[in-house]
Each structure stands twice: as C-alpha cells, then as structure tokens.
Specification:
Number of strands: 0
Order of helices and strands: HHHH
Shape: elongated
Helix content: 55-70%
Radius of gyration: 21 Å
Strand content: under 5%
Distance between the termini: 9 Å
Number of helices: 4
Largest sheet: none
Structural class: mainly alpha
C-alpha cells in the first residue's frame, strides 16, 4: 500500500533522467524519493517518507544487462521472422519462429534468477 496519495507525472529528457538516476543511486534512494526531496527543499515543506534503495551487487547488474540483451535478441528474431515470411522464405521463417520461445524462456529465467538473488523491496 502506498503511503502517499498525490502524484504528478513529469516527463524527463534522457539526460535529465540519467542525472536523476545517478544522484538517487549515489544517495541509495529511489528516484521518486530523490525528486520528492528536491521539490520539498525548493518549496520549503517536509519531504515525506524516504524509500531506501541499496545498490545491487555487480553480478545482479550483469544479469539484468544480459536479460536486456536477450530481450533485444528476441525482438530482432521476431523482425527477422516477419521479414522471412514476407519474402516467401517459409523454411527460414519456420526455423526462426522455433527459436523465439527459447529466447523468451531465457529472458524469463534471467528475470527469475535476478529476483532470486536480489528480491524487489515489497
């Protein structure tokens, strides 16, 4: 259950988001907590609850990166399958289609491994 009821959606540029993430990680808090503190300081009110976020171990970060690479590979395979089908290369399309479930399964397995090693805060 969330402790705070109000919210504001703010879209950030990639540069802004990267900077906020850097500051939040340095202070080991969530990005939302870091921004809430910044706003509270600017307008002179209490910042509210702090959600601490520890930095995951390097191995967990590497698993997360591998998961993203596997997901990108899956997307590329889907595009390749579509192209093969459109070009009338049925056998190639079928071979690619058979790989896609294994790629999806690998991504899910990496998610499970990451969650096992570094469970999300509840």
């Amino acid at each position: 259950m969330r402790q705070l009821t109000g919210q504001v959606l703010v879209r950030l540029t990639a540069e802004q988001q990267a900077a906020v993430a850097t500051y939040a990680v340095a202070e080991q808090v969530t990005m939302a907590t870091w921004i809430r503190r910044l706003v509270a300081d600017a307008i002179g009110v209490e910042p509210g609850p702090v959600t601490w976020r520890a930095i995951p171990p390097q191995g967990v970060l590497e698993i997360a990166h591998l998961r993203e690479v596997v997901a990108e590979l899956g997307g590329a395979l889907v595009q390749a399958a579509v192209a093969a089908r459109k070009d009338g290369r049925a056998a190639e399309h079928e071979e690619i289609e058979m790989l896609i479930p294994r790629i999806k399964s690998s991504a899910l397995e990496l998610d499970r491994l990451k969650e096992k090693l570094w469970p999300r805060a509840r």
